[in-house]
Design a protein that fits this description.
Strand content: under 5%
Number of helices: 14
Subcellular location: Cell membrane; Membrane
CATH architecture of one domain: Orthogonal Bundle
CATH topology of one domain: MetI-like fold
Distance between the termini: 11 Å
Number of strands: 0
Order of helices and strands: HHHHHHHHHHHHHH
Membrane topology: Multi-pass membrane protein
Structural class: mainly alpha
Keywords: Membrane, Transmembrane, Transmembrane helix, Transport
Main location: membrane
InterPro entries: MetI-like, MetI-like_sf
Shape: globular
Low-confidence stretches: none
Mean pLDDT: 75
Length: 325
C-alpha cells in the first residue's frame, strides 16, 4: 500500500513537472521565430508572409493553448520534440541522443566513484576520529571542495593541458577520430575525459567525506552502537553493520539527487573543456534561444531527478525498517 502511495505521488509530481515545462517557455517574451526574423531584418524588411514561412519551418506551435498542450503531451510520450533552431534541421531527439552517452560516461561514472570513495573515507575518518587517519581525508576534502568547479577546471587545463601537454584541452575525442565501438576510439574518449573527470572528482569528493563523517560521528554515540560494542562484536562489524548503515541515509538522499542531476551534465566543466555533453548542449540552447532543445533537456533532467528520488525512497525502506511505517 505504501509503495502504491509513493508511486501515485511520483506520477502526480511527474505530471506537474511536464505541465510546468509546457507553460514556462510560453511565458517568456517573444517567440522562437523572432530571433530568426531579427537576423533577416538586418538585410531588409521582413514581410508577414516571410514571418509565417519562418514560423512554419521552425514548427512554432499554433492553435489554442489546449490543443498545444495535447500536442505537447503526445510529443513527450513519443519523444518527438521537434527540430532544433540552433542545429536546424537536426531533430532535438537526435542531438540529445548524441550528447547523453558522453555525459553519462563522464559525470555518471565519476559521481558514483566519488560517492563510494567519499563514503568509505568518511566512515574510516569517523571510526578513527582523533587520529591522523581522520585528519588527512577531512582536511584534504575540505580544501578541495572549497574551490569552485570552474576554478579547478581552469587550473587543471592550464597546468596539465597547456603547460604540461599531458592531456587534451578540449573535445571528447580527437579531431580525426571516427565514432565506433573500437578499442582505439574508446581509449581516445577516456583519454579526453580525464581532465573533466578529475575536476568533478576533486571538487565533489570532499562533500561526501565530510557528510558521512559528521553523520557517523553522531551515530557512534547512540545506544545501540554502545550495546553492540559491549557485546564484544568486532570493530568492523560495529562500524559497518550498525553505525555506517544508519549514518549513510542522509548521504544516500544526496546521492539520489546527484545521480538524478547526472543527466543534466556538469555545465561549467563541460563548457570549460568544450566537452559535448548535455551541459554543453544546454548552454548552446540557452544562448541561442533554442526553445525546443531547452524544453527537451529541462524535461529530461526533471524526470531523471524524480526517478532517482523515487528509487532512493524505496531503497530507504530496505536499509532502515523504521521508514516502512
Amino acid at each position: 500500500m505504501a509503495l502504491l502511495r509513493k508511486f501515485g505521488l511520483f506520477v502526480l509530481t511527474l505530471w506537474a513537472a511536464v505541465t510546468i515545462n509546457f507553460i514556462l517557455p510560453r511565458l517568456m517574451p517573444g517567440s522562437p521565430a523572432d530571433a530568426a526574423i531579427a537576423k533577416l531584418s538586418q538585410s531588409g524588411p521582413v514581410t508577414a508572409a516571410t514571418k509565417k514561412a519562418i514560423e512554419a519551418q521552425l514548427g512554432v506551435p499554433t492553435g489554442s493553448i489546449l490543443s498545444q498542450y495535447g500536442s505537447y503531451l503526445h510529443q513527450v510520450v513519443t519523444l518527438d520534440f521537434g527540430v532544433s533552431y540552433t542545429f536546424f534541421p537536426q531533430p532535438v531527439a537526435e542531438l540529445v541522443g548524441q550528447a547523453l552517452p558522453y555525459t553519462l560516461i563522464l559525470v555518471g561514472v565519476v559521481t558514483i566513484i566519488a560517492f563510494i570513495g567519499g563514503t568509505l573515507l568518511g566512515i574510516l575518518a569517523a571510526w578513527k576520529r582523533g587520529t591522523w587517519i581522520e585528519a588527512l581525508p577531512t582536511l584534504g576534502g575540505s580544501f578541495a571542495s572549497a574551490f569552485p568547479y570552474f576554478w579547478t577546471a581552469l587550473l587543471l587545463l592550464f597546468f596539465l593541458g597547456y603547460v604540461g601537454h599531458i592531456f587534451p584541452t578540449s573535445g571528447a575525442a580527437g579531431v580525426t577520430a571516427v565514432p565506433a565501438l573500437t578499442g582505439s576510439y574508446v581509449l581516445d574518449v577516456l583519454y579526453h575525459a580525464i581532465l573533466p573527470a578529475l575536476t568533478i572528482l576533486i571538487t565533489s569528493l570532499g562533500g561526501w567525506i565530510l557528510g558521512m563523517r559528521n553523520t557517523m560521528i553522531n551515530t557512534l554515540g547512540d545506544d545501540y552502537v554502545t550495546f553492540a560494542e559491549a557485546n564484544g562484536l568486532k570493530s568492523r562489524t560495529v562500524a559497518i553493520r550498525y553505525a555506517a548503515r544508519n549514518a549513510i541515509l542522509p548521504n544516500l538522499t544526496s546521492f539520489g539527487l546527484a545521480l538524478g542531476g547526472v543527466v543534466g551534465g556538469s555545465l561549467l566543466v563541460e563548457s570549460v573543456f568544450g566537452y559535448p555533453g548535455i551541459g554543453y548542449l544546454l548552454l548552446k540552447a540557452v544562448t541561442n534561444q533554442d526553445y525546443p532543445l531547452m524544453q527537451a533537456l529541462f524535461l529530461m533532467i526533471t524526470i531523471s531527478v524524480l526517478v532517482a528520488n523515487f528509487l532512493v525512497d524505496i531503497l530507504y525502506g530496505a536499509l532502515d525498517p523504521r521508514t516502512r511505517r
